[in-house]
Design a protein that fits this description.
homodimer, alpha/beta, Aspartate Aminotransferase, domain 1, Aspartate Aminotransferase, domain 2, 7-stranded mixed sheet, 12 helices, 15 strands, 14% strand
């Protein structure tokens, strides 16, 4: 008699974006003529740049020819792409070996699956608010208790607040696996080297592991801010970095990412090299490599031309962020993020809740945003706005907010 | 203090293909002039057909244009592709709804991850021999005990032998999750409707779930043999089908597959629809959709033109299978499979073990095969030969076996 994984019963039934859809649909049912302006989901909107399109095309053409056709590649990724990523890190003075880099079909699956190589009694710490995948994947895998109110038992929530600049203090209790995301989704906060250093010191002392999600690294323009956790001394001994082509190259639909598991990383019962080999075993057993077409595109994205072309797309999104920021500040709202990150984090006026502000934005400005409470209890009272969008749509949303939002 | 998932320690350290590489390399080191002929790995070798290449190209071009660019799609897959698969099944008189079909990046990840939606105390049954992913994914997830000899404690091995035509008898004991693969990897055996029906009856009676791997369905030419388990009465109430474009369209490197979780499937503590929604939740939380380029290719592969063009590639591989089969039979070897499946399953001469026959093939004919013992204890005494390969390479291997193998 088969049974189900009961941990699924612990998950909230209404996933954030499902509830957003529901409320949006209800609004449209009542206001069929309203033209909705969407600043909610962090989905790229601009076409892939010419040099990367050329790479993808090349990937397809290779498959049409018996001399260049390839089937299964290494589950860990194409050797050329792994080496290109070694060079990519070397530019930031981070020395990695190609077999410390594992190509994947994106940051989300890696962020969700990485917990599976660690012990089932691991205590998880997450930034609060955080990308829901860190929490949900651990709930499903049984690393938490049940949900009580807005939090799961057994997870350590590290509040990110206006007071701490939306980067958490190092935990005071014992935790084993620490998820950090910088530039942050949803707050747009970017950790300094000093802030990351505090976590690295904690992890080294307690033999904890940091899972560092750097999926938005390419939005950092301030050269003093670290784009990789390995720019911090000691990080290779305690940190795994998860990364992606999604937001740097418009690959949200193409699906390509990577995870770095440095060989010096050692923990209890696993000497240097062991965690690297565990992830390799996980990937070779349960994954079959990223698409060879996507990997050709990734190679092109890492070329000098690809990097330059992508930079202008990123600059465009960041121009969106500036426009949105300016409008909201003029409205008298408290706005965070949106400087070295594509997300803005906005305090709801007065004592309004996230969902109340969501409803107000929808009703008055016809703008769809993301309620901060959906990312964790400390997100309550905030909304997230994404800078991904066509310029004309962003301008229309900004105009509508300017004209119609009553703050 | 982080710890590792100790279940990884239960896994054999030397994965089958690693050991094959090691022995092959050792042979080449001693015989640097030998030209190796590889019939080992089940990897497609022929280029992707023109109509599917056109689909992939179209997928790339869409991404270059702001009007047609797409980022994140539904994690469950593109609606058009799901509907095309509904039509694909309808041709075999199997009625499915599009939301019973989940597009993925291939059969391997789905086969590995499907266990995660079931209870941790589930008793797993596998065909013996079997594709190693079924067993290894359950070992990693803690659904088994340790390995003793050639088997893991807690797994029910269902022997596939010459006596039962390499399709197992229904278990006599209680099992909860049953993995079946037809056409089978590695034996090349194809289950009849009657044989599948026996398992469906067992599953319905015991409320067990069948995980049916149909990745090689397109190699069946005998119209009486079922290409989908849903051709069997009652299967929708108890079976999940995992499938792939890898072997039907040369997508081993492109990465595209699908899994069917019918809504009528109900088990203990999960009424109809619940298992479907669990897999949906798993995929939306831990996966981010298959590549949009690959999905355009998949659509083209399901078109009339795509199906016809792919059929001739499949016919070519099956011609390879016939050539290999003929040669081995002439050599006096006992050969199974290779008729409605791209794999041949060959009894080692006399009382030779799998690895001994592997070594003999390598030493005498310079042909690399796959030792049957790597797929489970009942694979001992057999080797697997794959029909995937360019015609000239297959002919060279066959000539070498004919001339040099001493049976």
């Amino acid at each position: 008699m088969a049974t189900v994984n009961e941990n699924y019963n612990k998950l909230s039934s209404d996933y954030l974006f499902v509830e957003i859809s529901r409320r949006t649909k209800a609004f449209l049912d009542k206001n069929p003529d309203a033209k909705l302006l969407r600043l909610g989901i962090g989905n790229t909107t601009e076409p892939i740049v010419p040099s990367v399109i050329a790479g993808l095309r090349f990937g397809v053409e290779k498959l049409s020819n018996p001399k260049t056709y390839t089937g299964y590649g290494d589950e860990q990724g194409d050797a050329r792409l792994r080496k290109a990523l070694v060079d990519f890190y070397a530019k930031r003075d981070v020395a990695l070996a190609h077999d410390e880099i594992f190509i994947s079909d994106g940051a989300k699956p890696d962020a969700a699956n990485i917990q599976s190589i660690f012990g089932e009694k691991s205590v998880i710490a997450v930034q609060d608010p955080a990308y829901p995948v860190y929490v949900d994947s651990n709930v499903i895998s049984g690393h938490t208790g049940i949900k009580k109110g807005a939090t799961y038992e057994g997870i350590v929530y590290m509040p990110c607040t206006e007071q701490n600049g939306f980067f958490p203090e190092v935990p005071t209790q014992k935790v084993d696996i620490i998820y950090l995301c910088s530039p942050n989704n949803p707050t747009g906060a970017v950790a300094t080297k000093e802030q990351l250093s505090g976590f690295v010191d904690y992890a080294l002392e307690r033999k904890a592991v940091i899972i560092f999600d750097a999926a938005y690294h390419s939005y950092i323009s301030d050269s003093r801010l670290p784009r990789s956790i390995y720019e911090v001394e000691g990080a290779k001994e305690c940190s795994i970095e998860i990364n992606s082509f999604s937001k740097s190259s418009g690959f949200t639909g193409v699906r390509l990412g990577w995870t770095v598991v440095p060989k010096p990383l050692a923990i209890d019962g696993a000497q240097a090299g062991r965690v690297n080999s565990l992830w390799s075993r996980r990937q070779t057993t349960m994954f079959n490599g990223a698409s060879n077409i996507a990997q050709e595109g990734g190679l092109a994205a890492l070329s000098e031309e690809g990097m330059a072309e992508n930079q202008s797309v990123i600059d465009g999104y960041m121009e969106n962020a500036r426009t949105i920021r300016e409008c909201l500040v003029q409205k008298g709202l408290k706005v965070f993020g949106g400087v070295n990150a594509p997300y803005l984090w906005i305090k709801a006026p007065g004592s309004m809740s996230s969902w109340e502000f969501f409803d107000k934005m929808l009703a008055e400005a016809h703008v769809v945003v993301t309620p901060g409470a959906g990312f964790g209890p400390s997100g309550e009272g905030y909304i997230r706005i994404s800078a991904f969008g066509h310029r004309e749509d962003i301008n229309a949303a900004v105009e509508s907010i300017r004209a119609n939002l009553m703050v």
